[in-house]
């Protein structure tokens, strides 16, 4: 069975912890952001490739959902699933789990754009990147779409 792509591992750093003794809400974005760098490495946009081609990703939108607290020194693991791609954009859903217990800590849905930094402007993915993304998207198409994917934030009103 196909599974989400393993992207990134980390440990909760002291600087990521707030006065309550657990990871600060802003710090949850760090492993998700770094997992995008790891994804770029896997699809032909490593740091060397980005410098050579002047192409990168830019986050257009990000939705974080918090599920469980985590404390300093605890291990983290990020996995991701490509939900949609087009010629210039990528919609990625990610899970942040405890690196040992597997407890779901947070989820993140991001809309990313391909950027030509010489503009800078949104531009089509480079061919190598587009091909790698298409292959991942095809593999991930058999995975269920997370229930909260594509949802915004709202108060329920009667």
Q: Could you characterize what this model shows?
A:
The chain is an alpha+beta fold and 158 residues long. The protein has a single domain (5-140), classed as Roll (Thiol Ester Dehydrase, Chain A), CATH 3.10.129. The protein has three helices and six strands. The chain is globular, with a radius of gyration of 16 Å.
Which secondary structure elements does this structure contain, and how are they paired or packed?
Layout (H helix, E strand, L loop, with lengths): L4 E7 L17 H14 L4 H7 L1 E12 L8 E11 L3 E10 L5 E13 L4 E2 L4 H14 L18
Antiparallel strand pairs: 1-3, 2-5, 3-4, 4-5, 5-6
Please give a handful of descriptors for the protein shown:
158 residues, alpha+beta, Thiol Ester Dehydrase, Chain A, 3 helices, 6 strands
Summarize the structure.
The protein has 3 helices and 6 strands. The protein is of the alpha+beta class.
Helix fraction by DSSP (H/I, runs of at least 4): 10-25%
CATH class: Alpha Beta
Distance between the termini: 42 Å
The beta-strand count equals 6
Structural class: alpha+beta
The Cα radius of gyration reads 16 Å
Backbone shape:
globular
| DSSP summary: helix tally | 3
Number of domains: 1
């Amino acid at each position: 069975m196909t599974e989400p792509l393993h992207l990134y591992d980390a440990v909760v750093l002291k600087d990521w912890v707030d006065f309550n003794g657990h990871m600060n809400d802003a710090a949850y974005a760090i492993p998700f952001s770094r997992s995008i760098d790891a994804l770029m490495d896997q699809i032909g946009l490593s740091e060397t490739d980005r410098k050579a081609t002047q192409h990168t990703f830019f986050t257009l939108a990000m939705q974080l959902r918090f599920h469980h607290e985590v404390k300093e020194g605890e291990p983290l693991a990020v996995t991701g699933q490509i939900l949609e791609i087009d010629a210039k954009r990528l919609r990625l859903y990610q899970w942040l789990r405890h690196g040992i217990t597997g407890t779901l800590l947070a989820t993140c849905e991001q809309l990313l754009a391909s950027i030509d930094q010489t503009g800078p402007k949104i531009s089509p993915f480079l061919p190598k990147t587009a091909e790698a993304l298409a292959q991942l998207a095809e593999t991930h198409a058999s995975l269920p779409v997370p229930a909260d994917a594509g949802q915004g934030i709202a108060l329920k009103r009667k």
